[in-house]
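From the methods appendix. Each design record in this collection lists the tokenized structure first, followed by the designed amino acid sequence. Records were kept in a plain field format so they could be parsed without special tools. The example shown here is representative of the layout used throughout.

RECORD:
FOLD TOKENS (242 positions):
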């Protein structure tokens, strides 16, 4: 692919003079111009070290904020609890949406992190509504949290098919399945999660839920954890583990 010598004024004058003096051929001059153009067009990237430091700082800031909120959480009424989590969810969704199309890879990854946080706060919001507003007990708050997390994670995953969104979707769906079959002193939830995780691995194998490696890792880990849970009440868990 060649580039016109007239794209870079200063460079062009030198190259044209060198071509006229037969020091280089025109094809060599165009190759030089192409090389310089690509070098100048290469965007500046944030280093991984800088990105890691940024995440550490953000984590410390969030921890400080969570500590501050926890001091007043018990004094807040149910409406304030719901409002705080709803605002947090909307803010995280909005920031992730604003950053998702950035040409800087680090900013794109930040969008994924923010959206994972939004899935978590959505789950917390649903659980708070179930407990504080609906006065639900037993498995209902967990089921509500799983359904809310899955409902938020699905469109985010469809918009950004990356590992972080894959993880958020899997965790929300697994929580939903486990909560739906949660019965006291029964391994039903363990069997259900094991079967769901096995299906997830198979679906990932066929490339239907990319990235595949995330699907293999998450599904396999969930199968082992579910087998361990079943093994606590039934020897069948050992076979499931194998």
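DESIGN:
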């Amino acid at each position: 692919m060649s580039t016109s010598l007239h794209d870079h004024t200063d460079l062009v004058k030198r190259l044209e003079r060198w071509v006229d003096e037969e020091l280089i051929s025109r094809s060599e001059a165009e190759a030089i111009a192409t090389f310089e153009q690509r070098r100048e067009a290469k965007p500046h990237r944030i280093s991984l070290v800088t990105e890691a430091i940024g995440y550490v700082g953000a984590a410390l800031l969030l921890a400080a904020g969570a500590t501050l909120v926890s001091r007043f959480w018990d004094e807040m009424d149910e409406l304030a609890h719901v409002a705080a989590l709803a605002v947090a969810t909307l803010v995280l969704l909005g920031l992730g949406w604003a950053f998702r199309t950035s040409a800087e890879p680090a900013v794109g990854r930040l969008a994924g992190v923010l959206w994972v946080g939004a899935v978590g706060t959505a789950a917390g919001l649903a659980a708070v509504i179930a407990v504080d507003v609906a006065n639900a007990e037993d498995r209902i708050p967990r089921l509500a949290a799983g359904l809310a997390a899955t409902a938020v994670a699905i469109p985010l995953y469809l918009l950004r098919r990356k590992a972080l969104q894959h993880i958020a979707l899997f965790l929300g769906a697994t929580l939903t399945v486990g909560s739906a079959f949660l019965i006291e002193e029964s391994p039903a939830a363990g069997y259900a999660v094991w079967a769901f995780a096995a299906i997830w691995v198979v679906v990932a194998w066929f490339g239907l839920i990319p990235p595949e490696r995330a699907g293999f890792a998450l599904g396999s880990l969930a199968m082992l954890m579910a087998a361990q849970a079943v093994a606590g009440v039934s020897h069948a868990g050992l076979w499931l583990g194998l």
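APPENDIX NOTE: The CA atoms of residues 52 and 132 lie 37 Å apart.
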